[in-house]
Automatic annotation (TrEMBL):
It comes from the Bacteria. Keywords: 2Fe-2S, Iron, Iron-sulfur, Metal-binding, NAD, Oxidoreductase. It comes from Chelatococcus reniformis. This is Rieske domain-containing protein. Residues 36-144 form the Rieske domain. Its cofactor is Fe cation.
Amino acid sequence: MQDAGMFVAPRPAVWSQAMRSMDDFWREQAEIGKIWQLVGLTTSVEREGEWFRSTLGGRSIFVQRFKDGLRGFENVCVHRGHPLRTEDKGNGPIRCGFHHWQYDQHGRALGIPKCNEMFGASPRELNARLRTLDVANCGILIFARFPNERFHEPLETYLGPGFDILRSLWSEGRSPYIWSTELKANWRLGHHISLDDYHIVAVHPSTFGKNGYLPQEVVKYYRFGRHSAYFYNADEKALQKMVEDCRNGTFQPDGYRIMQFFPNLVASVSPIGSACLAGIMQYVPVAHDRTRLFMIIQDYPRPAADQSRSRALVRRLKLPIILRSAQLMTRKIFKEDNAVCEHMQAIVHQLDRPPILGRQEERIGWFEENYADVVGDLRPSSVAAD
Ligand code: FES
Ligand SMILES: [Fe+2]
């Protein structure tokens, strides 16, 4: 733990650079797209042939289920660049709507109308291929990245202890409630606020902040790999214990826990009365000043051993009400957080000094260290850093 207010962003010049210009945003996203990121759920692609469209590193992509598993491709036809998928989801072969080039499960253009006549070669001789993605899943969560030299660890290694936790919380889809909204601000401003426990009194006075600031002794932060977590009222070993319990299928949530996976994923677990909810939140970058915010909530049944029949029945009856109130509260919290981010985006060209981060904002510093490491040097900023 650092002293309050002692953290200084490692590279102040890039702190707000990609928040200000589209050119810098694309440069940033080209690097960020090399890191594993959540792109969708296996529940959307259960049957062979099913696909969904998503976004990775600011680029349109799609993931499809084939006989031998899931594959992902950049959503750009190699002929003249038309998107292959123009809807959010569907089922069927990869056939471009512009000139009907058709691709196989490896992304090879093997069905090209009038190929010899038009191109003087057979499809195999042309050897045109889609750009493929690395794809892996953890429970029902599908992650992807653009293959690259620098970041090639398997998903399990990348998520570290978080892999077992996510796999346990999201082992199957139980009619997840999925909601999305637009944030008119940069994705990092959105993600920063999820790493900040200091704003709750000013921004969420009727919910998280109604009892005042969190006493420092109940705030426990963990750092693992590029990721971090906040557990309410937990000890040094609570993260390791949670991993072991998740692995053994015996995890019993006893307090609010939130984990931030670099770069843009937030996973939480909240015991509420007799129920427990697992949540996923993701800030998907769209432009330097625009982000799509996704929220997924579903029931996380505690291990059956500890559930008497009567408790299980009460839980089942109360669950729809708990889910509904969680949805309403989540929307309210987002609205409050998003207003802050949008106010900052309006003056983002003036954010030319690094922030001063206190103890309950410490994880923003951890996040920014990773950001600087992954993104590297952006073009020198036109605004001088202090
Ligand atoms: S652009 Fe796709 S077939 Fe022509
Ligand atoms: Fe907030």
